[in-house]
Amino acid sequence: MFKLFKNLERKDLLIVLVIAILVITSVFLDLRIPEYMSEITRLVQTENSTMKEILTSGGHMLICAVLSLICTITVGFFSSLLAAKFSRTMRRKIFEKVESFGINEIKKFKTSSLITRTTNDVTQIEMLLAMGLQLLIKSPVMAIWALTKILGKSAELSLVTGCGVVIIVVTNLIIISIVSPRFQIIQSLTDKLNGVSRENILGVRVVSAFNAEDFMTKRFGKVNDELSDIHLKITKTFALFDPIMNFVMHFQHLGIYVVGAMLIIKSNMIDKITMFSNMVVFSSYGIQVIMSFLMLTMIFMILPRARVSAKRINEVLDEEPSIKSGDFKGKTNEKGTVEFKNVSFKYPDADEYLLKNISFKANQGETVAFIGSTGSGKSTLINLVPRLYDATVGEVFVDGVNVKDYDLHELNNRIGYIAQTAFMFTGSVYDNVSYGDNGREKASLDKVKEAIKIAQGKDFVEKMDKDYKSHIARGGTNISGGQKQRLSIARAIARDPEIYIFDDSFSALDYQTDAKLREELKKHTKEATSLIVAQRIGTIMNADKIIVLDKGECVGMGTHQELLKSCDIYKEIALSQLSEEELQNA
User: Fold this and answer.
1) How far apart are alpha carbons 454 and 488 in whole angstroms?
2) What pLDDT score was predicted for residue 466?
3) Helix (H, G, I), strand (E, B) or coil at 364
4) Are 112 and 312 spatial neighbours (Cβ–Cβ below 8 Å)?
5) Strand pairing report for 367-372 and 545-550
6) The pLDDT of residue 438
7) pLDDT score of 441
8) Which letter does DSSP use for residue 120 in this model?
9) φ/ψ bin of 394: left (φ > 0), alpha (ψ from -120 to 50), beta (otherwise)
């Protein structure tokens, strides 16, 4: 918890100091009121007292109450300001940290959990700062200060107040020990609930197509019921606080008056007035002490969950990314080259290697294609180039420099990556094609139009309501799969990189569009290197070099015609798609 609060800035610490001063001032003013009440009580029972003296003491009480109100309102404002600023900072830090994560870290935390940590967990810390900070300062100060006001005035009345305090403290400890372990379960179940909801929303088409609404409802209901049950158990446990507090508060009040009355009866006439005055003071200060512990109880309700949330946030912030940026940003002797030297790879939680001893080199302007059966490691292999993963054994070079030595921004600026699953961001067609570029200037509209034209997307884009300014929904749900792939390819073209990586990026295109796109692409990218993963022989047969993968091993390398003669696996794949005559005439 305290580790998280180290993120407070110097200005924030100044706000905390101001809050502390105002809270202490408010407590001082609140504790002055019973003293004026005692003074008024003494004046009323004393002969020769004037109305002016009574009104003066009453006026002082009113001033203290008004000033205390002003301090409380000001504290509330600064506490909310501090909480809002801190939560903003934490959300930004978590987001920036997650952006530095590789796929391994994302898999470790899971998307739903990262969303919960960025939203719900940060909200718990915000509530602690907004509500708990002033209570955390006010309650102990008020309790100790009030006790010092009454201790020594009457041992009997002090004992009554002390008994009430002991009962409250013991009750708090018992209840907190019961509920604290359950807060960890609540956050874990919240992650799970978000995960189920997210799957249902993202997979709504599949759910509807297979009439699986009842199944998903039951799945959601199970997690929802678990979370609700835990919440109910905690709420029922905390519900014991109110009756216990009221019981202690009222019986302490009654006890003070009973014991006070007995002491007054036994006192002589001169001491009766002093004893009555003490009884009034004890009654007021006793309530202040009980209220202090009531405020501590509220903190105990917020603190355990905030502590769990702080731990979960720190887990994200303390996680070291497995993909670390290098320092290289200079010029290279080569341009547009990709080389694999004895590369083997296995996932962190796997026992066997997915890729085994892969070696090849793609020179500037060449097109190198990868083909093989499903699960042969094609996508994994090309994902080693932009460092979505790092090679377990061996080295990967881009422009003659090991990818691990590159500054990640410098490496990514040399690459145009088209993912296997085309993803569109919320925004316009222009926004999606000119996306980001890691600090480069945003592509001009003319450049975007040219990129879309090369990607064979001009016809469908210009038929949209606002052509290049037309809205694209999140994930591209308002356009087809083929349209998403063409815009995704256009996004890479607009970037004008040295190296293009196509991860099965033509699968949703018809053969005619595929052929036209590759023809235009070859003209535009003749100086660039292209790495293509594909399932279609027609997409890759004109590549300068084709690498055939089988079970993670390179079983063939060469041109289309060479592989037809030398590689049985390639020939088998080719014959499953085209006739022998078509293959020979290709």
Assistant:
1) 12
2) 86
3) coil
4) no
5) parallel
6) 44
7) 55
8) I
9) left
Residue 513 CA to residue 18 CA, distance in Å, equals: 67
Residue with tokens 């064979």: 456
pLDDT in the model for residue 439: 42
CA atoms within a 13 Å half-sphere pointing along the CA-CB vector of 348:
11
What pLDDT was estimated at residue 442? 62
CA within 13 Å, CB half, 309: 26
Report DSSP state, residue 385: T
Contact in structure between 41 and 33 (CB atoms under 8 Å):
no
Model confidence pLDDT, tens digit, residues 464-492: 888 888 898 888 888 888 888 889 988 88
Closest CA to 246 of 140, 174, 171: 171
Please give the pLDDT value at position 357: 92
Question: CB neighbours (10 Å) of residue 110?
Answer: 15
CB-count exposure of residue 99 (10 Å: 0-12, 13-18, 19+)? exposed
Low-confidence ranges of the chain (pLDDT < 70): 1-7, 45, 150-154, 268-274, 277-278, 436-443, 582-586
- Could you identify the residue written with the tokens 């720190």? 314
Token reading at 117:
């940590």
Instruction: Determine the pLDDT at residue 3.
Output: 67
* Nearest-angstrom CA–CA distance, 165 and 159: 10
Residue bearing tokens 């349209």: 483
Alpha-carbon distance of 332 to 402, in angstroms, equals: 11
Query: Max Cα separation, the chain?
Result: 126
**How far, in whole angstroms, is CA 105 from its chain's centroid?**
13
In sequence order, what DSSP letters do the residues of 242-280 get, joined into one string?
Answer: HHHHHHHHHHHHHHHHHHHHHHHHHS-HHHHHHHHHHHH
Q: Is the pTM of this model over 0.85?
A: no
